Each structure stands twice: as structure tokens, then as C-alpha cells.
Amino acid sequence: MTLAAFAYQRPRSLAEAVEAMAEAPDARWLSGGMSLLPMMKLELAAPPALLDLSGVEDLRGIRDEGDFLHIGAMTRHVELARDPAVRRDAHLASLAAERIGDPQVRNRGTVGGSLAHADPAADLPAALLALDAEVEAVSARGRRALSVQDLLLGPMMTALEPDELIVAIRIPKHTGHRQAYTKVPHPASGYAVVGVAVAIHEEGGRVRQAAIAVTGVALKAFRAARAEAVLAGQAVDQEVLAEAAGLVCDGQDVLGDVYASAAYRRQLAQVVTRRTLEGLR
Amino acid sequence: MASANPSDRSEAAFTYIGKSRHREDGPAKLVGAGGYVADLDPAGSWYAHLVLSPHPHARIRGVDTRAAAAVAGVKAVYLGDALPEADLLAESEVFYAGEPVAVVVADDPAVAEDAAELVEVDYDVLPAVVDAEAAMRPDAPLVRQLEDTAGRADAGAHGDAAGGSAKTEERPNNVSAVVKYRRGDAEAARAEADVSVTRRYHLPPLYQGFLETHGSSAHAERTGETTIWTTTQGQFMVRNAVKRLLKLPDYRVRVVGATVGGGFGGKGVLLEPLVATLSQRLGRPVAMLLDRQQDILVNNPGPAADIEVTLSARSDGTLVAIEARLVFDNGAERGGSAGIACLMLAGTYRCPNLDVLGYDVMTHKVPIGAYRAPGAPQGYFALESAMDELAGTLHMDPLQLRLKNAVQEGDDRPDGRTWPRIGLLECLRAAAAHPFFEEPLGPNEGIGVAAGGWGGGLEPAAAACQVTSEGRLVVQVGSIDITGTNTTFALIAAEELGLSPDEVHVQFADTAHAPYAGMAGGSKTTYTVGLAVAEAAKAVRKQVLEIAAERLEAAVEDLDMADGAVHVKGVPGRSVTLAEIARDTARFGGRTAPLIAEGRSAVTKSAPGFAVHAARVAVDPDTGEVRVTGYLAVQDVGRALNPKEVEGQILGGVAQGIGRALYEDLAYDSTGQPVSTSFLDYQMPTFHDVPRVDIVLVEVPAEQGPYGAKGVGEPPAIPGAAAVANAVAAATGRRVATLPITPERVLAAQ
């Protein structure tokens, strides 16, 4: 449980960080350390060098950019949960951030770190997926944008290159959409056995746009496309909700483990989806 | 007034006994003042780290220690065959995943840990026997030679174990003990009974989950003295193990019991012989602290059990037959939990026909030890679930069914003895009268009840008392205070001497200095050491009164002690304080002999303690999630010497019962690999999971305990699992017979 020896650097700017990574290609970015450090303690990871991003001012802050909210990658979960602009324009992100780990984890853990870690049972990926967010990544080769959908490849796997760094998350504003995140935490780890993020936009009593994203259930967070399709254009009633909820895991290879079998997890996801949708009515 | 039998005294006669007092060790613990093994760091200490086997069963072909030994700071690397006296490292074959195979010693704990990774062990992997039932089949391979095993922690030390009439029969494969209780003709009685219920129950192994992991430190000095600092519930037990293994006279081994951060039966002897051996070999103090993962892998957990029970009764609820078959999975050592489980399962209710058979079985898993009331929660989960099902079948109130059949003083036990003064009926009546059952239930809520009992352990004990020159009393004991016993001892001594407990200091001393006391286990510390403290205090009182009689020119019979002074009865003002007397015992030219005495006890009768719990749960019908919404705990404690502490014991036991019922599972996969080796996977109950607990103390005095007290530590950890399972059954109509009661099992149950 003692960390293996590693080199440590704390760059003071984004340019310095990118340069340091170019010089030490086996290094890992250290943001909040809420996942990486436990992995190092358990010897699941032993990077020779850590580049601590806590000194990079460019990675901080939440900005209003018209149709989007710009969330600096080093934004702490607690900030995301409490920020008035996020609560107004992308409430789902706040709701999911509130359910992450415990207060200590929320005080240290970061939005960028959570996405880059890509734990298949993490809370934020589901919320950001439902909000159609995209990430901005930077490396010595330049800057690119990719959707959260494209970012997440599998358990602890992302489309980021080893030297690439998430610098910000851009969330399209969902002002006025009904949003909710429901999580059934694993009783020991606190990670989601099932987490369901929902954002519904209604006009004239009919669903104009429905987003349902699920975490904890498959190898990565996913959008429940068929369930969304059931809701789209409908005047929502009990029957429609039940039909949508029943399809939430459609097409997914549902995970089973010691705590919850695949069959139970599927059932739980359906129950949680139905209740989340009902709660939004 | 000291009487020959303290239990004769009525409550009104007590000044301090029965009045709640905060734990003396509380403030230090609250501020993190330390005293734990991890806080002790002997100067010049080296640090040891274990290399563990990843395989449940393998032959060690060879070990390459060169890379580890070459690391800067590494002082030694030892394999098991070099340290047979350590009694912990495998020699040529490993019998469980996590078994230590080598130890690395370095001048820095992190260096030792890193170097341990470099020890290359070449294993010849062998087939593992994982399932206890499968291990018993005639064609199953032997886990290991039975004679090679001794059993790590002696679970039998905890309770009033079966022994007696338990007969050893021809043993199936890999069975280290068979326990059998037969009475009448159970099969015939079942055939004639009005109703029978049969079900098979399963309980997983449990980790005790103490906050503080195992740790020990030793210094073998060149003078020939070896001192060991360790987290243990029994320092004399450690001393006896070390002196035996290291072949030293017992006075050469000094064990200093450190503050214990939770024991629950799991802190007996583990690392001490190893660190003592290493210190001897290396001539340096050597310390070892297990990290959480190693602690879970190497520690002695509570055993898994499979129990099939059939209860048969007449339509009026009279039990006519109990049949049961119990299989305990003890891992790769012999171990004795089946005895207690069989005894309590067969002995809690009056029943003319018994056929109860228990097996202690070996498998390729970590050897089990004791976990709070070893064997009893398993036996009672099965028995009390079955009683609940029987009550349902008979359309009878579950408490009434138990009241109808409960044993009482003088009833036969299955082991040929008779029950002494016990309070099972009194607990059942107190529960039945409690308003807990009248509160309205919400939707999907249900209430379940269950009883449990514990035989109570015995062990000779001694204690010393002396009056300081300031007139305070110092009580010296060698028992480890894991439950607030020192605070209780202060109350006992205060009561005997008519001295405020504020003026009594209970001093813990190591094995070189303390009078003997057994392991703090088996719910026997207050029961046995407490009696010795009372005896010592009485003897000091006698010394004080004799001196005071001279000073006050009065007969001893005319004197009384109160408020730290000796008074002549009926003559106000004629008194002398303890401080005045004591001053002369410790000064140059003084003429009064020091006030000091020892007290001894060898209690011959155990005092079984019974408890009745009721749980209220709410079950989510769609997800199967169970929430405990209310809890009633009734317990016969003989006499509550320090009620607040007794209630604390009960609260802790309730929490552990809820953990056993709903969450905890030291799971293995089908190949024998443990899969919950961290708190990311192993789920303990938290503050949020435990509701308010209504506690009712019943006092049916023990014949021999101090002031009638009985051991209170184990009984509250026993009925919880069945109470919760029965509540789930009441709420859902479904009975979960496999623990823990996970949401998924609730939905799958019939």
C-alpha cells in the first residue's frame, strides 16, 4: 500500500505542461488524484513520473460562452455541483457531481480527471453524455475537440493519445430542460451499480428532445437510444414511460459481478429509469 | 458492605455499581492520543513485509530471493523453512491464497514492501479444494495432513464449547471434528408431527473489519529478554504461544498489549512469533504492520457455514424434533466452531427429540479464527429463521412460539449438563411487552424477531489493588480493555472501598508485571477479572479497616467506608480519611505497612447470556433494497455494572448483526481466490445503515459473576441476521436463506 517511487513535476502553465509531457512520454497527468493515487497504492498503476496539473491556471474556471458553458478540466466536482451557471444551464452535471464519492472526493476530484479516467461506473460520463458535451484536448501536436460519446471507448479507455490532456469540457446549455440523475451506489465502493442521467425538453406537452444516459451497466456509459426514441414526440404518460424504461439496456452487453448479476442490473436499470422519468413529470 | 456473595446485594445498596460512567479511555481516543502499535516505533527498528502466495494450493518448487536481497536497505530475506518457529510461513506447500511464503526485512517499511515484490517464487500449482461440501466427498483430495495443523486462534477459548457428550464419529474426508447431539428419535417424531419446516441456510465467511489492522513489534535483547508490543486481545495468550514456539521460559518473554483498535475475536496470536524470531535472528527490534489488503488475506476470519434445519412441532406449537446438519468451512487449519453452533441450535428450546450433526471441514482457504461469538450467529441464523417459518406455518405469533418452547433453569442441555440461571424467558417476555411492536408499519415494512445465546467463557484471573500515598486506589490488571472493562473495574473497586471512581485508576500492566488474565474474549473479562478486582479491593478494605480501627479506637465491625474515609458508625465526626492512613505507608519512618492486595478468581460456572432482537425493515419491492427502519434489542446482562457501556456493547453488536444480515461477504471465486480484499468490495455497515436502537436490559443475576453480572459482549452480535431475515420475510413473504441479504437475493427469493 506504499506507492512505488516516481518523479514529480508541477508545471505552471499549459505550455509548460505539454512540453514536460513531450519530454517524459511515460508520465501520467495528475489532476485530483482520487482515482490514480488509489490505483498506485494498489499497484494497479506505477507511472514513472507524475505531472501535477494543480498549478495550471488555464485549466480552471467556468465560463459562459453563449450557447455553451466552458468548464475548465481542473474544476472540482464540488464546484460543478454548486456553480450557479451550471445549476441553471446544465443542471444535470451538477446533480451528477453531487453524487460522486464523498465530500473529500468531491473536494479534490476534477471533471477532466473523471472523464480521462473513464471508469465505467463513474457518474459524470453519464451526465455529460446526456448533455451532449464535448471535450477539448491538447497535446504538443495541437488542439482538438471530440464529443464525450467519441471520447469514451471502454473501461478505463478513451480516445485520448497518451500525451494528450483534456483542458476543458463544453456543455451545450440545457436551460429549462427537465433533468435528473439517479444513482444506486455500490454499497462498499460508492460507484454506480446503476446510474441514470436524464434530460427532457418538452414543448406543448410533448417531448421534443429526450436524452437518457446510463452508467455502471456496461463497459462504458451509453445513451439509451431506443428508450429516447420511444419518448420523442410523445405526450408522456405512465405507459410511455414504462415502455421507454423497458428498453433502456437495449442492445447493451450488461455487466454482472459479485454484487449484482447482469439480470439484476438490467432490471435495476429499468426500475431506476422509470422512477427517474416519473420523478420528472 | 462487602458480602460473601456480592450478587445477594439489592440494587439500593449500591453507590457506584449500575450508574453509567464514561469510558476512561474515551478522551484519549477522541483526540487521537495514540498508544496503538503503529504509534510505537522502537529506536533502531527494522521493518518486515510478507510475500504472499497468489495460489490457493501449490507446491513451492523454488524461491529466488537474490533480487530482493540486493535492494539497498534490505537486511534479510527468509523463507518458511528457515523460520519454522514463526509458525506463519509456508515451508514447501501453500494451502491458501494469501499464505505467507517469505518475509523481507529492511531498514525502511517501503523498501521492505518494494523488495517483497522482487521475491520470485516458482509454484507448481495444485488442484484446490474450495467447497466444504465437496471436500467431504470420499474422492476429494486431502487439503493437508490433519496432524500438520494446530488451528491458529482457538475459537474454543471463547465459549463454553461443546466438549462433553459430543461424540467423535467416523470422519468424512477433510473433516477435523464431528459433533453429534442425539436425543430420542427425531425421525419418528417428525413423522408423527403436525407440521415440519425444512430449509438450508448459508452464511459466508466474514472479516472482523477492525479499524486497526494487525501489527506487532519485537525486541529480542542480548540479555535474553524478548519484549513484544502487539495489538492482541490476550497478551498472556501471545506470551504462551511465543515461549512455546521459541522454546523460551515464559518469564523471558514480555508481551505488552498495546491499545487495540478493534478485535472482535480476530486479534489473538498472528505475527508475534514471527517478529520475535526475526528480532532474535537479527539482533534488532523488528516491526510489522499489515496493510488492509494483507490483513484481509492473512487475518483469521469468521467461518462460512451451510446449515440444514428441520423443525417439527405439534399444532399447538410444541416442538417435537430438531434435526440439523451443519458444515463449517474452516479453511486450511482445523478449527472449532461447529461445537458451539450445534450446542446452541439444539439447546435453546425444549425438545424431546434431537438429531444434530456438525462438521468442521478443511478447505484451501485462509484458516478461520474467531469473530464475535464464534459459531453462534451461524447456528442461530438457521435456527431462528426456521422458528420464524414454523410460526408462520402454525399461524402463531413468533414470540409466543418461542415463549412456549424456551429453555429455563434446570432444563437439560444437549451436552448432558443442565441450564443454570438464564434469562431467555425474561427477555422474550420483555420483548413481547415492548411498544416496538405496536408502532404502525409503513408500506412494504415488516418486523422480525430472533433470539440468540452465548455460553460464556471461563478462565482463572487475578488482579491487584493498592492505595497510593495520596489515598487513591490503583487497580492493576493484565486484561486487555477492548470494551470498556477498565472503567467497570474502577466502579467495582470504588464500590468495595466506598471511594469515588474518580479516585480509582485502573492500570494496565504487561505480562511481566500484571497478574494473570485470560484473553478478552468469550464475554468473560468482567465476569472473571471483575471478580478478582472485587476480591482485591475487599482485601485492601480489610487492611484499611484494621488500621483505622486502631486509629479510631473502635472495633472493625463498627466501621464503615464512604466518600474516601472510614467512619465509626453512628458517631458523626469520628473518622479518618484514606489519604491520612495512606500517607504513613509511603514515607521515611512511617509505621504503616503499604495497603496492597491481590484478588483471585477461578469461576467454575459459566453464565450464559441470552438476547432477543426485533428488526423492522422496509423493502423496495422493485429493487429489492432493504433498509432497517427500527430495532429493538433485549438482553439479559445479569446486572448492568456500567449501563452506558453495556448499551454500547449492544449497539455495536446490533451494527455487526446488520452487517452480517445485509452486507458483509468475504467472497471467494470458484477457484479459491478471495475477491473482496479491500473496502472497495467488502462492505461494512456504516452509520447510515444502523437505525435508532431501543435497548432493554434484563437483569437475571448470575450465580457467580460480580454483583450478578454476566458477560455482555457476544450475545448482541448473535440474533441480528435472523431478525433482519425474518423481517424481510414479513415484509415480502419471501425468505432469504443465504447471507448477505442482497437486493438481488430478495428479488430472487421464493
Mean pLDDT of chain A: 96
Highest-level CATH class of the largest domain in chain B: Alpha Beta
Total helical elements of chain B? 18
Task: Write down the domain tally of chain B.
Answer: 3
> What is the overall number of helices of chain A?
12
Helix content of chain A: 25-40%
Q: How would you describe the shape of chain B?
A: globular
Structural class of the secondary elements of chain A? alpha+beta
Q: Largest sheet of chain A, order of strands side by side?
A: 4-5-10-6-7
Main β-sheet, spatial strand arrangement of chain B: 3-5-1-12-9-10-11
Question: How many extended strands of chain B?
Answer: 26
Strand content bin of chain B: 15-25%
The first-to-last residue Cα distance of chain B is: 61 Å
Largest β sheet strand count, sense and barrel closure of chain B:
7 strands, mixed
Structural class of chain B: alpha+beta
Which CATH top level class of the largest domain in chain A fits? Alpha Beta
What does this structure look like?
The complex is a heterodimer of chains A (281) and B (750). Chain A is of the alpha+beta class. Chain A folds into 3 domains: 7-55, Uridine Diphospho-n-acetylenolpyruvylglucosamine Reductase, domain 2 (2-Layer Sandwich); 57-172, Uridine Diphospho-n-acetylenolpyruvylglucosamine Reductase, domain 3 (2-Layer Sandwich); 178-280, 2-Layer Sandwich (Enolase-like, domain 1). Chain A has helices at residues 14-23, 36-41, 77-82, 84-89, 91-98, 103-108, 111-117, 124-130, 148-151, 225-231, 238-246, 262-280; strands at 7-9, 28-30, 49-52, 62-65, 68-72, 134-139, 142-147, 152-154, 157-158, 165-172, 178-185, 192-203, 206-215, 222-223. Chain A has a 5-stranded antiparallel sheet with strand order 4-5-10-6-7. In chain A, strands 11-12-13-14 form a 4-stranded antiparallel sheet, sandwiched between helices. In chain A, a hairpin with a 2-residue loop joins strand 8 (152-154) and strand 9 (157-158). Chain B is of the alpha+beta class and 750 residues long. Chain B has 3 domains: 6-33 and 459-601, Aldehyde Oxidoreductase, domain 4 (2-Layer Sandwich), CATH 3.30.365; 37-126 and 209-298, Aldehyde Oxidoreductase, domain 3; 304-457 and 605-748, Aldehyde oxidase/xanthine dehydrogenase, molybdopterin binding domain (Aldehyde Oxidoreductase, domain 4). In chain B, 25% of the residues lie in helices and 23% in strands. Chain B has a 7-stranded mixed sheet with strand order 3-5-1-12-9-10-11, with helices on both faces. In chain B, helix 11 (398-405) packs antiparallel against helix 12 and helix 13 (485-497) runs parallel beside helix 14. The termini of chain B are far apart. The A-B interface holds A 1-2, 4-5, 42-43, 184, 187-189, 258-261, 264, 267-268, 271-272 and B 109-110, 113-114, 117, 291-293, 622-625, 663, 665, 667, 675-676, 678-684, 742-744, 747.
